């Protein structure tokens, strides 16, 4: 900040200690002291960090489930099928964006758990292990 700018006389840059404001990381870091999705969550407690990782894992599995499940009956009309597809798509994308925002915390643990959650979800719902047919209501998310 340039203190010689007109109208800025007497203004000092704010000073914060580590306890006042969380550090915003712009590179991967490994620590339980992270802020994921919500202000102040999970905090500095190991148990809450573990809960946050479990939450992200479950979100990823749900995204994969929504990507590969069969919701529409063959007897459904085009309108009702379209409405169901649209609702599932909106829910899937909303959850996928939540996962993306969690990964944007740059916490290595969150990144690893998100990749593992998507992988496990694909194994359960998208791989040939669970396939009874080649059709699903929604196309899988593309990269």
Structural write-up:
With 143 residues, the protein is mainly alpha-helical. It has a domain at 42-80 and 107-132. It has helices at 46-68, 78-103, 108-125, and strands at residues 34-35, 42-43. The protein has a two-stranded antiparallel ribbon with strand order 1-2. A hairpin with a 6-residue loop joins β1 (34-35) and β2. α1 (46-68) packs antiparallel against α2 and α1 runs parallel beside α3 (108-125). It is elongated, with a radius of gyration of 22 Å. 20% of the residues are buried. Mean pLDDT is 80; it is low at 13-18. Keywords: Copper, Copper transport, Ion transport, Membrane, Transmembrane, Transmembrane helix, Transport. One of its GO terms (cellular component) is plasma membrane. One of its GO terms (molecular function) is copper ion transmembrane transporter activity. This is Copper transport protein.
Given the structure, what is the number of helices? 3
The general outline is elongated
- What integer value in Å does the Rg equal? 22 Å
Instruction: Flag low-confidence runs.
Output: 13-18
What sequence of helices (H) and strands (E) makes up the elements? EEHHH
How many strands?
Answer: 2
Q: Structural class, please?
A: mainly alpha
How much of the polypeptide forms β-strand, as a percent range? under 5%
Compute the average pLDDT: 80
Instruction: Kindly report the spatial arrangement of strands forming the biggest sheet.
Output: 1-2
Helix percentage range? 40-55%
Ends distance: 41 Å
Task: Describe the main β-sheet briefly.
Answer: 2 strands, antiparallel
Family: Belongs to the copper transporter (Ctr) (TC 1.A.56) family. SLC31A subfamily.
Protein name: Copper transport protein
GO molecular function: copper ion transmembrane transporter activity
Subcellular location: Membrane
